[in-house]
Amino acid sequence: MTTFQSRFGREEWLKPYTDETLKALPAQGVKSIQVFCPGFSSDCLETIEEIGQENREYFMENGGESYAYIPALNADPSHIDMMIQLLEPHLQNWLLSPERDGDETLQYAKLHGAER
Fold it and tell me: What structural domains and CATH numbers belong to the chain?
């Protein structure tokens, strides 16, 4: 099941909403749930407080019995290795030249397709 969390402002957000879904699931017979946030490569306030604590309370207060938040991969060495493998081919040696000053960096960026 996929739900959407980051509601902000007056405009309608993508549905179903995470909080409303977690409040309703116990009445539908779902008493145990595991939750993870695939949109986050590391935990933050939104995942720790809103998903891990606030939404847990909604689920448990409405009859849930077991709620497990599965943490993001964070700084796990295999996660860092995967991110390096994923990003490095697209960095065009960007990180290999820390001695560049601002002008050199701008010239390098333009040389590699930047428009500004």
Answer: 1-74 (3.40.50.1400), 75-116 (no CATH)
